[in-house]
Model the fold of this input.
Amino acid sequence: MRSFWRRARVLSTVYYAYMTEYRAELLLWVLSGVLPFILMGVWMEAAQGGRFGLGPLDFARYFLAAFVARQFSVVWVVWEFEREVVEGRLSPRLLQPMDPAWHHFVSHFAERFARLPFAIILVGFFFVLYPQAIWLPSLSGFLLFCLAVSLAFTMRFIMQYTMAMFAFWTERASAIEEFWFLMYLFLSGLIAPLEIFPQAVRNVIQWTPFPYLINFPASLLVGLPVNVGQGLLVMLAWTGVFFVLNRWLWRQGLKHYSGMGA
Amino acid sequence: MRRHLRILRLFWATALAAELEYRANFIFAALSSLGNLIGSLFALSLFYRNGYTFSGWSWQEALVVLGIFTTLQGFADTFLAPNLSRIVKHVQQGTLDFILLKPLNSQFWLSTHTLSPWGLPDLFFGIVMIGYAGTQLSLAPQAYLLSAVPLLFGLISLYSLWFMLGATSIWFVKIYNVTEVLRGLLEAGRFPMVAYPTAYRFFFTFVIPVAFLTTIPAEAMLGRSEAGWIIGASLLALGLFLASAWFWQFALRFYTSASS
Done:
């Protein structure tokens, strides 16, 4: 157990240092997530008429929360893993007495802390431009938000890492992820709060993992009504399903793997 | 000119041959484009479902904007992204030297060397969407031609901006993400400009010229554009294109290769 914590600490500090090496790049990554701010504009303009049940201020806060939630669930493991398999760089990692997944997981985890300052500055900048939108989330809402984004990150990571396993069989596993990303884009609540979606669509997608990546944490933060228990259970269930699938594919894949040096 | 065309044909034939090794990818690309199309329509319908309309844009008219946006996405994925993201790689690995030594304009080489057929489904679906909306609005054939003019200017502006951003890698080396920021901002082109608050409209017209990419060509197609905007689009395209050529020459003065 002690060696586990030591490993976790060493890996985290190493990857944190590695991430801060490219600070300018990180800032650009944060900026490339501006989509919620663009949609915020359209929805605030649309809400002037008051036909959507949410006012302009509600939309502003929702999309700001969506922006923050998205910062936590950015994952790129499929591209890294695919490269490792194709170039054979996975081989030396297999010799280490540690599952290679930890390298990826910790590097993502550490990047969150390197990214956070930029995201906070951007949020602060937003409040300076638009002070009416300032709000203080309730303590329970904030704590639940923290729990939800951590789970959302874990779930998204495991889902994408599972897609990455297909790199053992096809050279372009990222193509599968790109299709998956579309679902994320349109069903997660990134383009609009789920309240705006037609009821029929909501009934279906509440059982998929997607709305729990953005809409669920964001709603917790701004205080829109959500079913907390159901949300957490659905997240855990999907994380479990993908975890089992992932381990199975990993074992099958290793048998198949013939990268350089293997 | 003829020499350039011949080179272009060689470039693209090789690029296509290389990409066609991954034919299964085409199915994925087509599925992705279809998914993107459905998602975009769904996003737009969220506004129109409750009887709200972007002021002065009926559902079909908004579809024209979305169609032009999808076409642009396809164009960017086919012609711009595969080439311009490579500038960064050439700078990083020092292979830019080989390109500078070639007896051909280096900007031309870098901008046209390859193409990726995976953007073609988007191009196709975009054109289908424009055609569908146009038929519903019973547009005359010359309306499409008329909108092709500002669209062409928009494409040139987009290319020039993208190229200039790519060229900054001479100083910053690792900047794959700059183009991602640009892509993120271009998403604003999904909706006509009137859908945005005034501050956004100003930003997307005069700072990042998204309005010139989708809204103005769409207005030209619907026959309600003012000549001033089209002239503006042409000046912008010309200005940005010349700026990109100048900027590249300027950036090259700062290029110290990896080997020398």
